[in-house]
Amino acid sequence: MFKKFFATILLLLVFIAHSAKCASQEQIYDWLESVYGDKIDFSSFSEDKPIKKVLEKIFDKAFQIETGIENYKDLLSCKTSLFFPLQEGDVDSKRKHIKLMQCALSWKGYYHGSISGKFNDETAVAVKKLKYDVLGVCVSDTSINLLWFAAILNESNYTPGNKSDKNIRKIQQYINRKYRSYCGIVPCDGLYSKRVNKAFIRILQHELNCEIDGIFGHSTTKKCPTLKFGMRGKFVHLLQCVLYMHGFKTEIDGIYGKEMSNAVKSFQRFVRLPVTGTANMSTIKALLVSTGDCKRPAIACDCAEQLNLAKALALRRAGCKYVGRYLTGGGWKNIPKYLTKKECADIAKAGLRFFPIYQDGGRKLDYFTIEQGAEDAQRALAAASYLGIPKGTIIYFAVDCDPSDDHLSDSVIPYFKVVFETVKKSKKGYFVGVYGTRKTCLRVSKAGYAKTSFVLGLSPLFNGNLGYSLPDNWAFDQFHELRGKERFRCEGGEFYLDRSAFSGRDHGVIINSFAN
Q: pTM above 0.85?
């Protein structure tokens, strides 16, 4: 018993002595500033942000300087670089690659030694630990090539957090073991993310022998396989991984059995695709891209142009049942986009229902302030009351851009808080909905300020769509623009239109009466 006690004390003392050498985040920042202060504008980093966030940006800039690669996404296609592989025994000379690596390893919690510029035993141990977390297996190789250098310096986390899923982490490590040459090294934090999303597309392209660019384009769409019950192999395994990432859990064994068929059916039911249990191109693309299959049928749409009876009837004949229309505002080329009482009546005569949208801005992040939220809510309430829109209707307030997590926390969610409170206080009986990226809809809805979501899915490269599932409360999912030569044409004229999937969570409204 005493032996165990003294052994514990000894280990604690060793840990304290070891940690004393560890560079703090402030010391890392100071070293980075001393080396890169003449190349990086350190004053541009906000002082009110946590130092971890600041260091992320600085390491990103330092990586660009040391390698000549301007963006991590160019890493896999890079033919030449200023970086040369590192191995044990190396010492920094003119370039500071080892010191920079030691700083980043310390920042990530792997390295507890001094920033010496020597690839010593302590540095090698840190590299082995990081590689174990990245790959999920022990390795003896401690050399650092460009791919590993990027993995050390970028913002990715390779250890699980409070919300981690152990199986997602295993999938991430599997990707890194087998496919890192094609998709780079992805985070191993047990969370679905943008980088994991793009990795899946690149893996699919590799297996299909397509151009590997991370974009689910024409070639990938054309070659996309159809997977069905009884099949086995790498494509089935990949599909199981992606299904699991989206919360549709199934055994990840490469066998398309009954459990997997049921998971596919559940996903198809959720996104409103034909429920077959067979994963065709439309199903696979819906898992990997926010637009999904742009050629699939749609019974909902929205437009920024006033509809007359002829246009409304043409939409109904084309299979549309629900149309999103704007409560206020001028439109493109000064064509008014605001709803009128007559338009409401014409929409009803054509057998359509409409869902109201409020947007008089929202394309830039500086739009979203508390004051603007109060003003927008009042304007939307006034327009809805004037048009005679009934109680219980959901009004969608638009975030027509791609906010980061910080922007959502600092401006968009406070904006929606005021909108929600103003609409509720009015006692007119309306509800608030949110229009925006998947991430925007998820965050605003989770905060309790939106009943349903109108998802801006037609921008597949938005950060707020990559690596995010459709929110559970999605009502409409905008996935295809009819623009230019594709614009909607009928006897009543031609106009731009956005097609949307319909979930059934919001059936819009119908107003039959009209008086001049």
A: yes
